[in-house]
Inverse folding.
């Protein structure tokens, strides 16, 4: 385990007991799996007191075979002064896709959350403008979920079964 | 154009709704902004994006790793070699492959050429939007020369698909070296000429100074990276913060601005072109000898001669072409300094032939959110200028 991981884990466990479900190093990134209800408190604490002032990116992930941990959101923070990067993950079942919004901490989260809503259907509570962003408004499904095939299965104008279609 | 007709109120207080885009020649791409105007002042702007969304993240989940490179070309198509290299380096990080020094230096040359090409597009277009067509025409010749270098290296000009996982597809040919040397010799005069034409021009400065400014705090909160963040005064550059591809071997400065306005964004890019040129010169001078690709037979196509005569080479050739290469499990994030900011690849591999999840951190998708805040309260003509100075590329924005 890296030093950064150990220091942060200790700080988080002192301040928010039980918020970190599991943690570890994934290559060069310390990764923390958080309780959903503690997400905002932990990220606010890291921004204000640990210098993680930059939200690099966030995205949704779908693990169709994980049952109660089917959907995940990934957040990456960056402490630009000490050049530390960390990653957080929050898991949730398909029935509870509501997540508190980060737009109150970083305005940059606005479109990132709209993208996660558009492609996976996460409901960000408190988001100022939760609409689809890249797909058309009339779409009635969330296309990056694994159950949707790349192309419409009913197409019969393509017979190319050897090249991964 | 439509006017809210309300005869009860003073006619001058009425706001006009104006559709700027989606296909407006002045926005240089497909962007729609619904503007609420009070005369020529913008009260409110609501951007709509997604007009050229091509589902790259979904596509990537269905393609073998080497077939994703052409997708990355089409993100920021003004500097596609940087995108290609970023993707190769992400996969190299995943498979823990060490790339030889020579390949890294060759990559640095291409990436810096691409950065110059990207900045040429952005800076000359700012000049065009202020009415200076001449500088654009002059400096675009330099961009053409860069495209000729790409052409000599990989055969393509715009969507380059340059390099391979593990290194370069071939060493630079003689003609490419000649063109690079010509470029190094000719470019300073061309850039100086453009600089003299535009930078201190009275009209240009009047139009760009204090146009669309953003403070450093606000820029950080909005996730700005690249020249736009540096123009606001934050010296964040991925090449220095997390050096990749041997950038630590080169000596270069990071130009920063103070106001974060259009003029600063323009100036930061102008200075960066000089720095990029200096990096190219250093890389050419220090070019190490040796292999131009790593020894990763599962990812790097063998010589055609070997495919015909050696069993092993034939197997690898078949596996790569059919996309059946096995990849270790893992999660990696790799960022490169793209033409307009931190271009990140977040890759999850479950060990299959395709990525389980690939997320592109597209810099302009993240910072374009600030656009409405930056133009509200300003003039319509400044909004056009602010957009070109932010270097928002539709292909990257909509992925």
């Amino acid at each position: 385990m890296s030093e950064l991981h150990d220091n942060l884990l200790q700080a988080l466990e002192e301040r928010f007991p039980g918020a970190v479900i599991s943690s570890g190093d994934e290559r060069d990134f310390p990764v923390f799996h958080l309780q959903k209800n503690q997400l905002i408190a932990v990220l606010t604490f890291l921004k204000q007191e640990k210098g993680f002032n930059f939200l690099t990116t966030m995205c949704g992930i779908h693990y169709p075979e994980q049952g109660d941990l089917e959907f995940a959101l990934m957040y990456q923070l960056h402490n630009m002064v000490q050049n530390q990067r960390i990653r957080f993950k929050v898991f949730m079942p398909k029935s509870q896709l509501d997540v508190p919004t980060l737009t109150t901490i970083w305005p940059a989260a606005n479109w990132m959350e709209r993208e996660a809503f558009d492609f996976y259907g996460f409901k960000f509570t408190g988001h100022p403008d939760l609409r689809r962003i890249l797909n058309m408004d009339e779409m009635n499904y969330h296309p990056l979920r694994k159950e949707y095939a790349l192309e419409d299965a009913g197409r019969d104008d393509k017979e190319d079964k050897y090249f991964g279609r | 154009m439509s006017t809210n007709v309300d005869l009860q109120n003073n006619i001058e207080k009425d706001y006009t709704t104006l559709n700027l885009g989606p296909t407006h020649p002045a926005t240089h791409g497909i962007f729609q902004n619904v503007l609420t105007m009070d005369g020529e002042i913008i009260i409110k702007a609501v951007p709509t994006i997604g007009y050229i969304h091509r589902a790259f993240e979904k596509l990537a989940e269905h393609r073998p790793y080497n077939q994703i490179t052409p997708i990355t070309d089409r993100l920021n198509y003004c500097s596609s070699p940087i995108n290609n290299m970023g993707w190769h380096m992400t996969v190299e990080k995943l498979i823990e492959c060490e790339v030889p020094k020579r390949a890294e230096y060759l990559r640095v040359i291409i990436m810096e050429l691409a950065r110059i090409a990207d900045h040429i597009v952005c800076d000359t277009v700012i000049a065009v939007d202020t009415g200076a067509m001449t500088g654009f025409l002059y400096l675009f010749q330099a961009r053409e020369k860069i495209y000729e270098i790409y052409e000599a290296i990989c055969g393509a000009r715009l969507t380059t698909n340059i390099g391979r996982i593990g290194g370069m597809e071939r060493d630079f040919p003689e003609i490419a070296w000649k063109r690079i040397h010509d470029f190094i010799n000719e470019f300073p005069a061309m850039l100086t000429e453009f600089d003299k034409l535009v930078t201190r021009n009275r009209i240009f400065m009047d139009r760009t100074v204090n146009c669309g400014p953003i403070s450093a705090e606000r820029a950080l909160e909005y996730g700005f990276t690249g020249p736009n963040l540096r123009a606001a005064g934050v010296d964040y550059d991925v090449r220095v913060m997390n050096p990749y591809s041997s950038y630590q071997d080169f000596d270069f400065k990071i130009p920063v601005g103070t106001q974060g306005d259009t003029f600063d964004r323009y100036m930061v890019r102008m200075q960066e072109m000089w720095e990029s040129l200096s990096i190219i010169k250093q890389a050419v001078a220090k070019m190490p000898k040796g292999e131009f690709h790593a020894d990763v037979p599962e990812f790097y196509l063998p010589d055609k001669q070997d495919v015909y005569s050696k069993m092993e080479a034939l197997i690898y050739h078949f596996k790569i072409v059919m996309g059946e290469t096995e990849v270790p499990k893992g999660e990696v994030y790799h960022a490169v300094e793209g033409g307009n900011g931190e271009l990140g690849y977040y890759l999850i591999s479950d060990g299959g032939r395709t990525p389980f999840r690939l997320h592109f951190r597209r810099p302009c998708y993240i910072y374009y959110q600030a656009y409405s805040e930056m133009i509200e309260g300003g003039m319509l003509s400044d909004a056009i200028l602010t957009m070109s100075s932010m270097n928002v590329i539709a292909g990257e924005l909509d992925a």
Remarks:
- Residues 124 and 137 of chain B are 8 Å apart (CA to CA).
